[in-house]
């Protein structure tokens, strides 16, 4: 599935329209965020997660979406189910993020 | 992210050299000059920071300290 680029304008709408959501919060200054991009794309293409919506959110320009997950550092990943935050973590470890997504898939 | 590492890059490298280093780090290659950082991600953050500061200094005709303050403000905003 393609990664959805979301902002404060449509974040709540995307959460409402997708039962399972994983969000990668990033910023343009964040090197680890950039290096995680191909891993996130690979995860989004994984059949195991076909029922999960993958979102990219610029933490700098989307304060409401950022606060909803309690972003503390970047990259920050958050998984939502039925619009509710299930878990959030600042990490650059692909295995950790994969396990987070498995919890909602 | 370590400010002294960014400062060192601003003082010793051109934007072109930093852009090349950015590409190299993304492609898992070794840049031609030393970039401080615990891993490739932190090194890339230092390169992004140095590029942003150099651009900001040129575009707004401000000194390093002013540009650095605005850069760190950007970073703080992203995680607060």
From TrEMBL, chain A:
InterPro entries linked to this entry: Thioredoxin-like_sf (IPR036249), Thioredoxin_domain (IPR013766)
Pfam families: Thioredoxin
Keyword rRNA-binding in annotation: no
Keyword Chloroplast appears in the UniProt entry: no
Keywords assigned: Disulfide bond
SUPFAM superfamilies assigned to the protein according to its UniProt record, in alphabetical order: Thioredoxin-like
Protein name (Swiss-Prot/TrEMBL): Thioredoxin
Family annotation (PANTHER family): THIOREDOXIN-LIKE PROTEIN 1
Domain of life, per lineage: Bacteria
Domain Thioredoxin: start-end pairs: 1-105
Automatic annotation (TrEMBL), chain B:
UniProt xrefs under InterPro entries: DUF6952
Protein name: Uncharacterized protein
Record organism: Rufibacter tibetensis
């Amino acid at each position: 599935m393609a990664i959805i680029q979301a902002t404060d304008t449509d974040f709540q709408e995307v959460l409402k329209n997708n039962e399972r959501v994983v969000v990668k919060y990033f910023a343009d200054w964040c090197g680890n965020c950039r290096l995680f991009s191909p891993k996130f794309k690979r995860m989004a293409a994984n059949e195991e997660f076909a029922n999960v919506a993958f979102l990219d959110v610029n933490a700098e320009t989307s304060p409401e979406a950022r606060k909803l997950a309690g972003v503390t550092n970047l990259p920050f990943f958050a998984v939502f189910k039925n619009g509710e935050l299930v878990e959030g973590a600042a990490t650059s470890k692909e295995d950790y993020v994969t396990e987070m997504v498995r919890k909602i898939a | 992210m370590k400010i002294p590492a960014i400062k060192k890059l601003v003082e010793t490298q051109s934007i072109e050299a930093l852009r090349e280093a950015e590409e190299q780090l993304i492609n898992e290659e070794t840049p031609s000059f030393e970039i401080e950082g615990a891993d490739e991600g932190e090194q890339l953050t230092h390169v992004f920071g140095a590029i942003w500061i150099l651009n900001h200094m040129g575009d707004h005709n401000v000194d390093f300290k002013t540009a650095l303050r605005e850069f760190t403000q950007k970073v703080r905003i992203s995680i607060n």
